Amino acid sequence: MVTISKKINDAINAQINWEMWSGYLYLSMANNFEAMGHKGIANWFTIQYKEELAHAQIFINYLNSRGGRVLLAPIAAVPTEWATPLEAFKATLEHEQNVTALINNLYALAEEEKDFATRQMLNWFVAEQVEEEDTARTLIDNFTLIGDNGYGIYQLDTELATRTYTDPSPLQNN
Ligand code: MG
């Protein structure tokens, strides 16, 4: 049985597409840095890509659990070239700020529609966006600090190579 309004259903479908697009963006960044020989940075963006797919899956599972209808739309093209890690992390922060605005809009719509279950589900994403922005900002600071110091970039690349993937939200990923 459908227990979700068409407005919310459509908005969640749009958000699923944004999460998939985010994944596509980070996968593109990963391959850009792979081609430049920065394997650690490529690893970091590959994990970021996997997290975005997990975000999309959370929305998919949620919509299905409400008897909604998941409709997958085409994923728009993404940029393919970033000259430096700093440029890519600046683009990452800018993108995550846009995603935060989208989550906030969805939250406002859930309030407007008095859909408290959707509001509750979105709380996880509100907190997640704070973390995403904070992480990007920290990496911008680090890459700004080292500038074009090759050894510094090598060190950071080595550090980012240690990032491993963990399911961002096992509780909601039923
Ligand atoms: Mg996301």
Report on the architecture of this protein.
The protein is mainly α and 174 residues long. The chain contains five helices and no strands. The protein starts with 5 loop residues before the first helix and ends in a 14-residue tail after the last helix. It binds magnesium ion (MG). Magnesium ion binds at residues 19, 22, 52, 55, 99.
* Tally of DSSP β-strands: 0
Bound chemical compounds: magnesium ion
Helicity level = over 70%
Span between N and C termini? 19 Å
The number of helical runs is 5
Write the SSE topology:
Elements: H1 6-35, H2 39-65, H3 85-112, H4 116-146, H5 150-160
Helix pairs in contact: 1-2, 1-3, 2-5, 3-4
Bound molecules: magnesium ion.
Residues 19, 22, 52, 55, 99 line the site of magnesium ion.
Notable traits:
174 residues, mainly alpha, binds magnesium ion
Brief summary of the model shown:
The protein has helices at 6-35, 39-65, 85-112, 116-146, 150-160. The chain is mainly α and 174 residues long.
